[in-house]
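Handout, page 2. Input:
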Amino acid sequence: MNIFNDKVGTFSANQVVTKGEYIRMLVTALQIPLPEDTISKKSSSKSSKKKNTQEAPFTDIKESDENYRYAVAAYNAGLISGGIFGANTYLTREMMYLYNIRAIGLERLGLGTMDVYTPFIDDKEISSWAKGALYAASKLGIITVSNGYIFPKKYVTKAECATFLNQFIDYLRYDLQKDYNDKMLIN
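Output:
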């Protein structure tokens, strides 16, 4: 699926994934359309050709950055918010699950759970902004748990990222329709 764009000689399974890399992988895996190269901070073109421009949603990443178009695609799809993108921030497990739950649009399953405990032993370590998504992901069974722990602050390596993305894609292919029928239509 060309999700990993590393060269064979430079790929390291234990290398930590950044937010920019993961957003690129997720956009690629979900085949979210990339925007045209018409996004600019200010429309300064006075030519007779009208360009379809919009204001850039991020303050810390330039259009020339290889992750920019993927970040804008993720922003347009509702996976991430505007403002500071933080492309070089290391990806944590709670961030990854938040993006995955947003990608399938099932955040509703986690609504109202910010003060509720999740089924994880390390529930107190989960950030309040991620608790609903982690709760929803646990209800859907798309979280990898290790003896009851989720390790929400743990950085995700490329090997773990490949495993999580594979599980996520399998969920989308085989289990999403069943969960939608069982959990969304009934409620």
